Amino acid sequence: MTTKPALKLTHEGALKVLSGAIAKAQEIGVPQNITVVDDGGNLLAFVRMDGAKFLSIETSKSKALSAASHRVPTGGMNPSMEIKLAIASGGRLTNAEGGLPIFIDSHCVGAIGVGSGTGAQDVEVARGGLAAIDARETAS
Amino acid sequence: MTTKPALKLTHEGALKVLSGAIAKAQEIGVPQNITVVDDGGNLLAFVRMDGAKFLSIETSKSKALSAASHRVPTGGMNPSMEIKLAIASGGRLTNAEGGLPIFIDSHCVGAIGVGSGTGAQDVEVARGGLAAIDARETAS
Amino acid sequence: MTTKPALKLTHEGALKVLSGAIAKAQEIGVPQNITVVDDGGNLLAFVRMDGAKFLSIETSKSKALSAASHRVPTGGMNPSMEIKLAIASGGRLTNAEGGLPIFIDSHCVGAIGVGSGTGAQDVEVARGGLAAIDARETAS
Amino acid sequence: MTTKPALKLTHEGALKVLSGAIAKAQEIGVPQNITVVDDGGNLLAFVRMDGAKFLSIETSKSKALSAASHRVPTGGMNPSMEIKLAIASGGRLTNAEGGLPIFIDSHCVGAIGVGSGTGAQDVEVARGGLAAIDARETAS
């Protein structure tokens, strides 16, 4: 088997994820940085909401990258490993909560990373993004 | 005088700029990377359209940064200076066409950078972004 | 709403902050690195006093960036999060004491970061900077 | 001979250089980024004037570093060498005009780098900085 079928998130889909996440962030009153990457970790869509922390531009991206790479939500890594792996990955892998893979029909088509609130708020907003396109954060 | 009044582009405004640029890119049939930064160069909004070149993620950002910093469209720099200043700025300053400052009420509130087409196509799409919020690419 | 009104710290204001911080550093006999950034984290003014540690050039900048981004004094972050967020932000976010946001009329116009003394000395000198322009370290 | 006497620029001296450069920039109506480094290239003092280009924060620093390292004004390098040396130095060496070494009693005590105007304007403002402490841009 030389090739296998895949599924790609479109920019239309990525912008819907942003919209769903923005709506949830506004609902809970926490401005956020929201990053959507594709399955290869390349940036697809981003927004920094009014009042969100500008250093969390980068943390939201690290969370999205980590969730896309590992295909699981960030935050579940063994704490004794998280710092050494973060450094070994050039600072791109993070275990901070707020990154979710985006699964559609059991394909991981990318990930969302949210940063500027507490870990729980970031996760809630990320889930708002997934809900907007009926995606899941686990393969099945 | 310790402070002076200014104007900030909202995320709502930045997303309208993205929409206007996407519409123009679809009209001319050229998928693009579109970056919107604020007046200090921090990322506000981004989208990579289906089929756009992924290395142009970075060039669209450099164009936006350059237009925000210099408050003029990219492309007008003295050719004999452009490489040395690009290097001296850590690779962030570019003279490639496709970056436009965003002026509203004579305030530079940020910039748009577009990359993946020809220079002329990138400029056309950037102008589509500005038109969506009735912004100008010059102060007056 | 495409834009919203804001306030910018002038270079005259930033230099007054430096002067106030230098005066306090001399009063307590601790030479310091003092960084002032604007609300987007771009450098506005800096001085390294005679005898200050040169590696603290960078730490004073990280402190200023962190206080400007989060709009709270550095040092209050959850200790269990500080290292992972420092790495995820590309090393720019720090929880070391000595960074204070600069609030004027409830606008965060930037931040000061001080480094080369103890945490308490750094905070004291940073407060000397804010006092020079009648600024506050909290929004209200 | 194990040691030799040296001369260090104080922070008081560096701030006078900033003041002299600011005064000249205001006289010619061109807001500037002004960097002063010591003889080892470490940052001593900096100011970004209202309206100066933020990407020139970095170019003003590259100019100051280059002038401190080579102990001659920037701009005189063989054009056929300037790009390859800029790259080989990690982007820190620049031949763009606006960097001047600071000589006092034939000691190079540091350098000033100015960026945001034309090359000629940058040099004029840098000279305003040197004049404020009766320094020279050549050893004798």
Walk me through this protein's architecture.
4 copies of one chain form a homotetramer. Helices cover 40% and strands 19% of the residues of chain A. Chain A is of the alpha+beta class. Chain A has one domain: Beta-Lactamase. The longest helix of chain A is centred in the first third of the chain and has 18 residues, at 11-28. The two termini of chain A are 24 Å apart. The model of chain A has no long low-confidence stretch (mean pLDDT 96). Chains in contact: A-B, A-C, B-C, B-D, C-D. The B-C interface holds B 1-10, 12-13, 16, 38-42, 104-105, 107, 109, 133 and C 1-10, 12-13, 16, 38-42, 104-105, 107, 109, 133. Strand 1 of chain B pairs antiparallel with strand 1 (3-9) of chain C, so a sheet runs across the interface. Chains A, B, C, D: It comes from Skermanella stibiiresistens SB22.
Largest interface: B-C, 23 and 23 residues
The CATH architecture of chain A comes to: 2-Layer Sandwich
Helix content of chain A: 40-55%
CATH superfamily of chain A: Haem-degrading domain
- The main sheet of chain A orders its strands as 2-1-4-3
Report, as a whole number of angstroms, the end-to-end distance of chain A: 24 Å
Give the count of helical stretches of chain A.
4
